[in-house]
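Exercise 7 asks you to align residues with tokens for two separate proteins.
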Amino acid sequence: DAVRAGQVAAPLPLEGGVDAIRDWRPADSLAVLKLIAWSSSNRIETGIVLDELIRVLGGGLAAPFRPGGGERSGASPPQVLIPPPRTSPGHAPEPLSQGLGLSTRIGGGTAWVLGGRYTESGLPLLLADLQLPATTPSLVYEAHLEGPGLSVVGATIPGIPIFWLGRNPDLAWAAITAGAVTADLYMETVREASASYHDGSGWVPLDIRGEVIRVREATGLREEEITIRSTRHGPLLDAVLEGEEPEKSEEDSRAGGSSNTSSLSLAWTGEIEGDRFSSLLAVARSSRASELRAALASHQEPVVAVVYADLSGDAG
């Protein structure tokens, strides 16, 4: 009714219709899992603020400002504030997030387990709650999956065959987003003339590639090509931090030169090779807490805190 009354815009049709999502591949599930991992991490803006704090305060004094840092040190975690907007002559203030494609944080959650000695049945009780922003459709949905050697019910995400909160006949678990820094900034020394950077031992070429981003608009899809320049740590942020002048390196500043500049690169744990999918898949088939712990021993990301309990009373 609101759409017909013109109060809200009608949803854009899916490009290609329903057929566009029928050809689902394993790579698509991996991509969704990567998106969940990235959205659960600290944002680029947070990394920029922390980088500035480290420069001004030093690593030790800046540590409490990292996510969870205040809790580890026993102090109240301070609020990390975004610096004031930048201004340039003749232009309105530019927000720090200009051009940064802000992502919705997945949020956190609450989970705890009560030992069997406190329950009438003598079995442990597990309670979990995913604290997610209200969206339509919801990020997670309840499902009951039956298969050969598998019977599991719980909360899953469309496109990913993983139960984040769930139980089978012998085991219950909850994987809650954990507060951890998974993205870091590195100060790189770049030589623009040769498109190279210093890796600590010598000058090596930047990895340069083009990517086409398809942007949905009211009139359809628009393709936008961007150039990504990367070091061994990750992509340089010059393209997204528009208006930010590259800094001269200390060596060039002393010599009065301008051939070398300092740029920020973004390193993310999600780019490191490691186990992600199979470890979480194995949890649903575990029948004992010891099997769950063994399955997660090799897990890398998304970074989660897992609460669990089995029929024998083993919990943690």
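Second protein for Exercise 7:
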Amino acid sequence: GMKPTLIPTGLKAYCPEDEFFILVNRSSGPKKGYVMANSIGIIDADYYGNDNNEGEIFFQLVNFGLTDKVIKKGERLGQGIFLPYLLADDEAAPLAKRTGGFGSSGR
């Protein structure tokens, strides 16, 4: 079956505490036979200093074509958008220290 593959970008993005960064599909992705497995990727402010991946941004892609794909250096895989966010009252005090990365929100 199809399984997601993490594609490194070599890029990092710093977010202030009240912002996050989302990764989204480009319209050309499906035409090329791949899409982001997680629909969108959310990168929180704590991801930048993550010891596990040094804050490097990865795209999680699924190839739904019949043949393997070659991703070339510099190929545009998606788009990134910086957005501000607010916390709900019950989220103001964190439950535990977070270390950013795939699946790190714990909620």
